[in-house]
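Reproducibility note. Readers wishing to regenerate the assembly model reported in the main text can use the exact inputs given here. Chain order matters: entities are listed in the order in which they were concatenated for prediction.
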Amino acid sequence: MGDTELELSPAQLEELQKSPSASSTSTTSSLSLPSSPSSGPRPLTSSSPSTSEGLPTSSPPLDVISEGVGELSLVIDTEVAKKACQEVLQKVKFLKADGEVSSASSEPVLVNGTAHPLSTDGGKPPKISEEEAEPVKNVRRRQKNNSSKQSWLLRLFESKLFDISMGISYLYNSKEPGVQAYIGNRLFSFRNEEVDFYLPQLLNMYIHMDEDVGDAIKPYVVHRCRQSINFSLQCAWLLGAYSSDMHISTQRHSRGTKLRKLILSDELKPSSQRIRREVPQPPPSCPPPLHHGQGMSEHSLSPSKRTHQRSKSDATISISLSSNLKRTASNPKVETSQDEPVRLTPQREFIKSLMGIGKRLATLPTKEQKTQRLISELSLLNHKLPARVWLPTAAFDHHVVRVPHTQAVVLNSKDKAPYLIYVEVLECENFETSSVPVRIPETQIRSTRSVENLPNCGISPDQRASSFSTVPNYDNDDEAWSVDDIGELQVELPEIHTNSCDNISQFSVDSITSQESKEPIFIAAGDIRRRLSEQLAHTPTTFKRDPEDPSAVALKEPWQEKVRRIREGSPYGHLPNWRLLSVIVKCGDDLRQELLAYQVLKQLQIIWEQERVPLWIKPYKILVISSDSGMIEPVVNAVSIHQVKKQSQLSLLDYFRQEHGNYNTEEFLTAQRNFVQSCAGYCLICYLLQVKDRHNGNILLDSEGHIIHIDFGFILSSSPRNLGFETSAFKLTSEFVDVMGGLDGDMFNYYKMLMLQGLIAARKHMEKVVQIVEIMQQGSQLPCFHGSSTIRNLKERFHMNLTEEQLQVLVEQMVDGSMRSITTKLYDGFQYLTNGIM
Amino acid sequence: MAQIEKKAGLLRRTSSSKKPLKEKVVLMYDEIFAKEDPTKNNPRFWDELFLMKVNLEYLEGKLESLDGDEVMKIKDNINSLFHHCVQALGEEHQIKVVNALQTLCALFRGVHQKNKSATGFDIINMLMGFDKAELRMKELMESLDSLLCGDGSESLKSLCLKLLLCLVTVTDNISQNTILEYVMINSIFEAILRILSDVSSRAQHGYDAVVLLALLVNYRKYESVNPYIVKLSIVDDEPTLDGMGMVIHHALTEYNRQYKDKEEENQGGFFSTLSSMVGSMFIADADEKLSVQTNEAILLALYEAVHLNRNFITVLAQSHPEIEMATTPATPVPASPTTPLGTTPPSLDMMNNPELPLDPNLQTSNLLITFLKYSSIVMQDTKDEHRLNSARLCLIILTCIAEDQYADAFLHDDNMNFRVNLHRMPMRHRKKAADKSIPSRPLVCAVLDLMVEFIITHMMKEFPMDLYVRCVQIIHKLICYQKKCRIRMHYTWRELWSALINLLKFLLSNETILLAKHNIFQLALQVVNLFNMFITYGDTFLPTPSSYDELYYEIIRMHQVFENLYCMVLRVSTNAGQWKEPASKVTHALVNVRAIINHFNPKIESYAAVNHISQLSEDQVLEVVRSNYDTLTLKLQDGLDQFERYSEQPREAGFFKELVRSISLNVRKNVSLSTMSQDVLLKEFSSIS
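Running the prediction on these inputs yields the following C-alpha cells for the assembly.
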C-alpha cells in the first residue's frame, strides 16, 4: 500500500493518461509522491525500482508519463510546451478558487494542521521533519480536488524539458500551493549549480512572497545549508541584503531574517555529513571548536612546530572576534560572542576585515594615503593567513594563504574606497574538509641562509678574516650567499625578466673579466646614451605611475605576467596547487543591481551561445554581502577606455594599432573582430537593460580588443541624477566606429547583423530574461525598479510583435540614432567636466 | 628621566629616615656580616630575612665598605645569603621573591663596586663559592626563566629583568663579567623571546628585554661562541620578530616625538623670535636644549637584529599606522598579532576600537621610516661623542640594510610609496622645506635624501671622515643594486651630483688641514667612482635619457673642481710619500671625467663663438652635449660595481666595544630596582598572599 502510494506503477500511469478524469484516489497518491523529501535530496529516484528499467536512473520516475508518449516529448517544441503549460496554469489558477472552498469544507481539521495528513499512509517512512512536512498537507488538500486538471501540468513538470528556469517561473507565477510545493521538492533534483544561479530569485521569493512559496523553498535551502558553508553564507548574505528594503519593524520578524539568523547561528550543521564524517574522517575535517583559545586539538594536526602555530588561524579569528566584540564600548554585553558559530566564523571574520578596511579607507582624503593604508592593513591581515577562508567569487575550492599586500590598489572612485586585492590561494579538494595549509613565513625563501649568516660567531678569527674580503663578481666563498641573492633578485624583481637587452648584462660581466686582460676597453658615450633611450622605448605598453590613478598600472600589467611575478615572490609559489585570484572589495555600494545585471548578462550569454550567435559579453561575478557591501570579480587584462586614452594620448584606433599592429595584420583583425562582437553584445545589453552612465571610465578594453561594460548602477528605470541625458539606445561613438573600420566597412555591417541576430535570439527566450528581473522586483526599493512600468517596458524592448524585417529596421534606426546622438557626446563632456573622465 | 627622579625621591626618603634606631633588617644584615653563622641563634633567620623590606643602600654600602680580605672572612655567610636568595625565588610567597630579587641585585652590585680590580673568579667565589657556583647559577637562571615565562605578576617579571640588567651591567666591560658565562650556559633567550612575542608583556617589559638581549649578544662577541648570537640569528618566528621591531619602533618614535616637541617649543612664541633677534650668541644654548638624550641601547638592538637576523629585514617594512604615543598612553605599543594564537590582530583592533583616531593626517609608518627620521635627527649634530657614535651606528645599520637584497627590494618597491619627513638642519642659505610638499616616493629616495643631507651639512673643520666614507658607501651600494636590477628611480639625481661635487671642493680647499688627520684620497676616490658609475652604467638605472645629459651638464658646469682635483692628486702622486699610492688611484679614476670635460668644453666654446653668445644657457649646453656624444670615447673602468661587504670584525670591533661600554654605564645608571616602590608591590601582593 505504501509503495503504491509512493510510486506509480506503469499500469496506473497508463490509466491516468488514458482517462484524465480518473478516480481521485489514484491521482492523489501520484501527486503526493514528490512531496516527501525525507528519503534524501532525490526522493524520486531512489524509490522507484519498478520504473527504472529503460529509464535513465537520474530522471524522476514520473518520466514514465513522457516515456509512455515517448516520441512526443522529444519532438515537443519549447514554445508549444510553454503555451500548454500556461494554459494549464490558467486552469489551475481558475480552479484554485474552487478548491479553496471545497477543501475548507471537506477537511476542516487540517487547516490548523497539527494532524499529520500522511500519518495514515501505512508503510511510508514516518519521520519527516516539521519544516519539510508542512507543505505536504497543502499539497494533499489541493490535489484531492484539482488532480485531474493538474495532470497535464504534472506531465510537463516531469518531462525532460522542465528545467530550473521553468521551475522558477512556475514557482513565481503559480498561486497554487500544490504546484509550489511540488517545485520546491523538484529543486532537489536539479544540479546545485543550476539552482545556485537562481538563488537570488529563490531567496527574494522566500522573503517577499506569500507563505506557501516560502514553505516550498525552505526545505531545499535548509538542506543545502547543511551541506555547504559557502551556500550557507551566500544565503545569509543574500537574505540580509534583500530584507533590507523592508520596513525595520517588519524586517525584524520577517521570515528572511529568521532564516538568516538560523543559518548564522550555525544550527544547520551537516546532519547527514556528520554521520558520514564520524566514521572515516580524521580530526581536521572541520575547524576545531576553539572559543577559549589556545589549541586543544591543534596537536593532532601535525607534529611540526610551524603547523602547530598556524593551524590555529581558524581559532585566531574566532578569538579575535569575541575579543573585539567585548571591546566595543558602545556594546558592552554582546550576546553573540558566546554562541558565535565556529563553522562559519573564519570566513565571516575574513569578509568583515576586508569590509572594515574599506570603511576606514573611505575616511582618508587622498588616493595616496588610501593606498598606503590599504597596504599596511593588508600586511596585518596576512598574519592571520592561511585560514579556512576563501573567495566566494572563485570557481574552485581553495584556501586563502596570502594577500600580496603591496600589489593591492585603490580604485578610482570619488567618495567610496573600492579596492582591488590579489589573493594567493591553494586549490584543494574541498575547503570544508581539506586541512588548512601550513603557514610559510614571508622570509622562507631566504631563511635557509639564516644559519650561514653568522658572520662573527662560531667562526674562528682567521675564518672571519677570510670572510672579510671584497666580493668580486660574487664568486668567492660567499657563493652560497650571492648566487642565492641573484636568484632572489630574479624572484623579486620583474624588471630583470622583462628586459630583453641581455647584451648589457653580458657587458657588465665583461667589465670584470677585463681586469685580467689589462687591455683597456673603450666605449662610446653615444652608445650608452642610445641604449638608455632604447631601453626606455622598449617598454611602451606599461602605463606611467600616477598617484591619482594607482590602479591604471596594476590593471595594465598582463595577468599572466602578474601571476608569474607574484608567484615568484611568494613563499607559497612553489606549491603546484598555487593560484592567484583577484577581487574588488566594495564597501558602501549596493551591489544588488550589479548582481541582477550579472544574471541577465549570464542568461543572455547562455541564450546567444545556445542560438549560436557569436556575440561576446563578459558577465563578471558579483557577491552581494549586504545592501551596502560586496565583492566583484575583476575583469583581468582590461583597463578602462578612459585610462587608455589618458595614458596613451592616442585615439582608440591608434591605440589598437599600437597594441595589436597595423591594419591587415592578423592580430589587428582578430582584435577588431573581438571588438565588434563585444560591441554588438554590449550595445544590445545596454539597450535591453537601459544601462546608463556610459562614460569611458565604465567601459573597459581588454588585451584582446574586447570591450566590457562595467558598473550597472543605472539600469532599467534609473538614470544618473535624472538629467535625461543619454537618450540614445546605447553608446556608439565615432571612435568606436573608426575601430570597426568606418561606417561603410564590412565590419560595421557585421556589427549590425550581429545585433539583429542577437536581438532575435534574445526575443525567442524573452521569458527567461524577464523572469530574472521580475522576481527581483518583489519587495525591492532598488532604483532600477522605480515606477510601475519597469517590467512592461523591458518586455516591450524585446519587440515580440515585430517581424524580423521590422527588427532589422529597428536595429538600423538604433545604430543611426546612437551615432548621431548628440547626447552621448554631451554626456562625455559632462563627465569630463565633473569627474575628469575623458 | 622618570626613573632618575623616582630614584632621587627614594634616596631622599631613606636619608630622612635615618634614625639612630636601626631597622630590624639592618640588624639582620649586620648579623650576616659577622663571622658567625646567623642561624646559630635563630634557626628561622633566613625565612624572616626575606619577609623584611630590603634596605638596598645599607646592604650595598656594607659590601662596598669591606675590602677583599674582610669579605673572604665572611664568605660563608655571603654564600649562604646568595644560596637562600636563590631558594627564596621558588617561594610561593611573592614578597619573599621580591625581596630575594632585590637582595641579589644588591649583592651583585655591592661585590662588584668594591672589587673592580678583582678577577671575575674571585667574585664568583665570594658570592657563591667555586664549588657551588655552577649549581647556584643554574638554579638562579632557571628560577628567573620560570618567573619570566610564568603567569605571575608583571611587577615580578619586571624585577627579574631589572636584576638581569643589573647583573649584565655590573662591569664596565661586559666581556669581563665572568658571571655571564653562566648566563650563556643557562640561556634565558627563550624567555626574552616570549616576552617580546606577547602583546601585553611586550608593552610592559619589551624595552628591558630588548636592551638585555642587545647586551647579552655583545658578551665576548669576538672571542667565543656566544649562544645568544647563534640563537638570535636563526629566529624566524614572525610574531616575535615583529614584537621586537615594535619595541624598537616605539622607542625611536618616542624619541622623534620628544625632539619634535622640543623643536616646536624652541620655535614657537614671541619669546623665541625675540631671542633669535637678540642674536646668535645663544644659538649654542638653543642647540643644547634641542638635544634629547639619544638612546644607543635601542639602536644597538636594532643593529644586532638587522645584522644578525636576515628575517628581521621584513620587519623593517612591516607597516603600522603611526600612532602618537602621547595621545594613547594606555596602549603604548600598537598591538600586533603576536602569537599565532593571536590575541588581537591590530586591524580588527583598530576597527572596533573607537578611541583610536582615524586621523586622515595619520601617516602609515614602518620601522624603517621611523629609523630614517631618527637618523636624520641624530645626524644633524655630531659634535659630541654620544651623538657621533649614534650617527655612526645609524650609518652602519643603513649599510647593512643597503646590502640586503630583500631590503633593497622593498626600498625600491614602486608600490610602496611613503612620504618621509626627514629633519633638516636649519641653515641660513636655505628655507625650511614645507613638509607637505614632499612627494610620496619609494623609500630609497628617503635614504638618498638623508645621505645628500648629511653630505651637504657636515663640511666642517672637525671633519667626520668616517661618517662620510660610510655615507658614500651606502649610496654606492644602492646604485649597484639599481644597476644590477635595472631599476630606474625617478630621483632628482642632480642634487646628489652637486652635493658630491661640493664635497670634492671642500676636500680640495681644506687639503692641508684634513690631510693631517685623514686619508682624503680614499673618500675622493669613492666620490669619483660614483660619477664613473653614472657615466658608464647610467644606461642601466637612470630614469630618462635627459638625466644622462644632465649628468654631463653638471660635470661640465663644475669642471673647475675636477680639474683642480686632478692637479692636486697628480701633484701628490708624483711626490714620494704615504699618499702617493692612494692619490694615483684617484688620477686614474678621473680619466673619464676629464675626457668629458676635455671633449665638451671646446665644443661649447666654439658653439658660443659661432653663435656669438657669451654665456650659454643650460638648454644650449645640453644641446651641445646631445649633439656631440658620438665622438666621445670613454674608458671602461674595472670593478665600479663591486663593493666590500660590511663586516663587523675586525674593523668595527673597537667601536662596538666602546659603544657597549657606554651603554652598560648608562643602563647601570638608570636601572633602578627601587623604581617599584614597596607600597605598590605590597598592594599588589597583599591580595594574593
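We highlight two features of this model. DSSP finds 35 helices and five strands in chain B. Confidence is low (pLDDT under 50) at residues 1-18, 269-290, 322-361 of chain B.
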